[in-house]
């Protein structure tokens, strides 16, 4: 960048015809003056195009000069009472600091952050006072993804508004007793306050982009009027290093999301040090966003610089601004005016001359643009009114603004949470907080009387914007009936003899039934990531269409086929391409629509279970935090169900990951009727009863006969386990075989082998959710521990198993840890043996893979026989005979090590 500028400067100095250059520039000025900037832009583009076509080499640059995008004469000034707003902002800065410092003086390891809000306070104040609307009867409200580390400042504002008490402020980061404030934005823990979680970093920008697109989706489908709503997302410049932060900016421009505003707080610092010490993060981000098609507005310099830039006739100041790297800018704000004079203005004698009449204090008061209300208001106004493209505001600030020597612009600013008395005094004086010296050591919160003019102003501003923010709707006002289980009769019945279908096909039948439902059909949101044909869902393309704001501008190549690829302005499918994170973000937007839009939506996000759950684990936790409601459908699930694909395609752990999220209800059903029972119950809980849970349901592409629903087993399916098939009652020796997903069928076949080859009866148990029965067992165990004088509660799975005899063998298509969850709840003295698919996947047939991972019917038989032998029920020679009979190689390497 610097070399490019040097070339331009040299070219200007060696201009062979300055008169001609001036004539061209004068002509351009005349066009701008008389016909406007659009006409000037058109002419310049035509000239550049002509020059390139004639062979001229014109290097492309998506950067503009390192100055404010909005010229001074076009700035729209803030209409508010800036004196009141400045005082309110100062009080919020103080209270945010006091909350964090008091928490850490009382308990030194609670943590907290002061510096992020200190740099953001001006932007947040302008937004809350003049732009961001709360939900009202005629407006759905704006959606705010607030920078996670700025939460103390949001609490400080809510405290002045009377929405939070002093007791709550004193319990910052102390939530266990139920009266504290969460460390970051957490809707799970503060369900009427925070709209969205924005930590882990990077998730806020990604989710906000898909949230903005979902608002367009709702409007296009006439489900809700979202035409005047905006999504605002605040993030730090360091946060933009996260791939998720930048990964979807192309989609936002392509989808013309003019309802999206991203504000990047460019305070030039991460936790450890500068973001781009040797570079310029604002210029880097400008190039990325402009290149992607965004409207980019830079707010770099405060008003004190305007006069200096106006004097800069030779462009020397602009050149020095561009050549100075971020590490230097950070250093300037950590020092003083004399240092800035010497090391910044001292880079050129004419710059020193320019500031010769300014004192060092005058130079120090040259602020960055993010700390000036007029500059911020003007940028927000443009973002609010921009049409056709998303907007990003790149706003330069000082990290830890107002923290003085304790943290302002210093590498330690992010972690600073303990201030000494002198730093607190300095902050009080700097912001004019009316607290006397004798009270300073207490670091009291400051809140003026309710009738103070500033407080009246504060409430009036929010009244004009519809109410207070952030706020979250915990329940939708609407109520939707759900279909009875009988509506899914086409998958509840047994398949005809010889007819085989997969649970994936059954799911397609279920979703097709729902799409035809008069109450829920329009609220179903199928979300796919370029795997529709894999799952047999391509029939939905023509039936309900793929959402595209432009419609279909081409004739699809398969138009002559029944299931052709159809895009539509009001399409119902969200087709996200090869993009699991985007698919999950769309799912989250739909799954929280009951809160953000007062419209219950029912999203079904269907993905390869391997590529889905392991890639979107952080987003799945965010969904739990947001109290999401919907269905995640993991297709081709299990380590051995997917023929011929290989290591990276085979899922043996998604259920272990799903089990970690408390409000995720994971199921691994084997049969079509189990899927129907689970989905119908999910609709009841999430739609009819508006319960804050979501479902992860795995599906298989393996075809087999479906036995149909046995009435009375519904409760066991939902609880997580039920008796599928009892062994021969007349047989004395017995074992219990537990299975889930596709491997349950191996247990069924193993039961037949045990009976036919060894005269041993096997009861076969279907376990659609080992995780849920484990959670129920843990709950019962805990209850019994804390109620020692009461009769102990018996876990559900214990109740089932204690009525049986013989060893218990659990086999799944997942790593052993999945079935190990329930070991603690087996009846005392009973053998419990687990088989699973630990290790790396590989390509082969299902038969060979199940042999390799030792989860096929023969290994189940051997495990059952060995358990009986260990108990002394049969001779060990019987086990050896079985190994020989089934051709098992006892010297075969352990699959975990392969």
UniProtKB/TrEMBL annotation:
It comes from the Bacteria. It is an enzyme of class 1 (oxidoreductase). Keywords: Oxidoreductase, Pyruvate, Thiamine pyrophosphate. The keyword Protein transport does not apply. Gene3D superfamilies: 3.40.50.920, 3.40.50.970. CDD domains: TPP_E1_EcPDC_like (cd02017). Its EC number is 1.2.4.1. Residues 720-855 form the Transketolase-like C-terminal domain. It catalyses: N(6)-[(R)-lipoyl]-L-lysyl-[protein] + pyruvate + H(+) = N(6)-[(R)-S(8)-acetyldihydrolipoyl]-L-lysyl-[protein] + CO2. Its cofactor is thiamine diphosphate. Residues 495-707 form the Pyruvate dehydrogenase E1 component middle domain. The keyword Glycosyltransferase does not apply. GO terms for molecular function: pyruvate dehydrogenase (acetyl-transferring) activity. Residues 147-300, 368-434 form the Transketolase N-terminal domain. Component of the pyruvate dehydrogenase (PDH) complex, that catalyzes the overall conversion of pyruvate to acetyl-CoA and CO(2). This is Pyruvate dehydrogenase E1 component.
